[in-house]
């Protein structure tokens, strides 16, 4: 209880002589410094609001406008064309008691301010119009039109020199609602290779009936929402796809990110945790102060929406009976740590100062050395977040809404993020590096089903041998946002913060730090029974997951780009070839594409299984000539790129149809067409994890610091989930998942098919050298 007494700023005792008041100056100092930090943050937020509010102009531009107006009037010219005089007439002169010169000056200031605000609105409107131009994306590489060159110049001029993280938000265009006719045509084209003749004819009739009857009515409601809402998709997508799901979010929704492949910066668990926690908090500081550079389309000046960063920290998903709720707090000065069945609150600030990495390591080591056992029912409490949502809601409402349980649960939910100190060793190591890499992925995806808090926006896992990783909840943001955070964390940990020669964090330790606070619980038998039920549900789900992670090292994007082909199109066509060889058929394929060119944009689906792609795969498998296969490949790659561009620019298929379906449910009408479309299974779900901050990694001097990327569970019970990350010029890392319960899928077999398909595609696209060209190569050597 020593730390509790230290936290009391003053104590008083009533005696016969009066009141005996004893002040704790140390505690008062802590309160003062903590309050000072809070006020500094408020002032910083107010300052950023002003800067964002006037963007793309700057606050100092107001002074420039005032001086320009005054200089013009000094030259006996009226730039306001009589407006300044009109303003002066309507000034409350009697209450202001100003001279004539003072009234004129005040009128000039009012006019200048109004003119300045008008210019800001005009500039913002012009920037929004410019950012609504997307033709640049459809132009061939190296063949940029004059219109696009002028457009790029104007965007650069209006973007300002140092925009804040959220500066572009009000200038981003809204996501447009595509014409229903175009969406239906693209849908029918996407399912043509998957349906038989009669099946396709039936879907064509259903689509035509939908368009001519219910479709246009639903479209009008959707256009009305698009006029009113910032984004006509995102709020419904978050609620109906994520928050209303009543099954476990572990595996089904959450995803993971992994550590470096070949390197572990330190083998000391506490030290790795110290640097990782510090790096994450430094990122949070950048987000809160909005000093993080806005993300852009790679290689361009085009900004992307940053709205997903707002709920990155201090956020949790709380269960409900019908729908979950995302709760976000403005700030948090602590993280919650789980170790060997016990929960701790670790304060990461003292007197408004962020603890040094060495101090956090010291505190983490205290937790590791704590010999106290878990309380009754405490060790597996996290299983409640891994099981079904409705039982977790009922238990939370009945047993965690008051008293000590509520206080401890609040500590977890209000924490900046969740940290698990795992007793296992993970990574590509030992006599079975391939199998250990797969076990590492499964550990991050679900762990023991009770040693992660799956409701937190993200949970960091630090293993006994110093390896780390994270598990992220999906509803608040998509993988690229979390990947950006994780890239910064890994790079800051390894290259900025660093370690001493003996593997410890750098910095000094203030030994007077109060120890981490153990959270206490009162877990009745009824809760323990529900924990066991949730754990059995989660364990069955975890045991069914088959994961395979492998680095493909034969070639990478460098070799692919020399063939003048998009690396993503190449990989997606290789996946089509691999799936066809694995299952002897084609399937509906999901590739995630972003729509962050628009305000509050999230994702859109690229239906990667196209007519052109299927024709190419069949040509390869039937042994057609190489020239014919190359021609078909070029057509398929160009088709894939066009589908990707359409999805990014708001002309996708699936989000539009999804929203039409939601409107139909609100209106209480049934559509056989929409019901069938939205029930189609995605047997191949794919996603690329982009490397967004290459400048943070020195691949030339530190080639071993290669990220493994991350992955997710299978979307369909009889399908595959495939995530891939293109690392450098010569490597592609793959994460393949499926379910053991379906006998016809196998992650290792499909991984081998992917590797084989990649090599076969390269051989098809690389013409065999003639004897003369080989002789010339020998002469040059």
Automatic annotation (TrEMBL):
Q: What is its main location?
A: mitochondrion
Give the residue spans that cross the bilayer. Answer: 50-74, 105-127
> Enzyme group, top EC level?
transferase
- Which residues belong to any copy of the Carnitine O-palmitoyltransferase N-terminal domain? 1-47
> What reaction is this protein's catalytic activity?
(R)-carnitine + hexadecanoyl-CoA = O-hexadecanoyl-(R)-carnitine + CoA
Q: Which Gene3D superfamilies match?
A: 6.10.250.1760, Chloramphenicol acetyltransferase-like domain, Choline/Carnitine o-acyltransferase, domain 2
Q: Say if the entry is tagged with keyword Transcription regulation.
A: no
Coiled-coil annotated residue ranges, if any: none
Any one Gene Ontology MF annotation carried by this entry is:
carnitine O-palmitoyltransferase activity
- This protein's source sits in the domain of life called Eukaryota
The UniProt entry lists membrane topology as: Multi-pass membrane protein
Q: Name one GO cellular component term.
A: mitochondrial outer membrane
SUPFAM superfamilies the record matches: CoA-dependent acyltransferases
Q: Where in the cell is it found?
A: Mitochondrion outer membrane
For the Choline/carnitine acyltransferase domain, which residue ranges apply?
A: 175-755
Q: Which GO terms describe its biological process?
A: carnitine metabolic process; fatty acid beta-oxidation; long-chain fatty acid transport
Q: Which family is it part of?
A: Belongs to the carnitine/choline acetyltransferase family.
From the Swiss-Prot or TrEMBL record, give the protein name.
carnitine O-palmitoyltransferase
**In the record, what lineage is assigned to the organism producing the protein?**
Eukaryota, Metazoa, Chordata, Craniata, Vertebrata
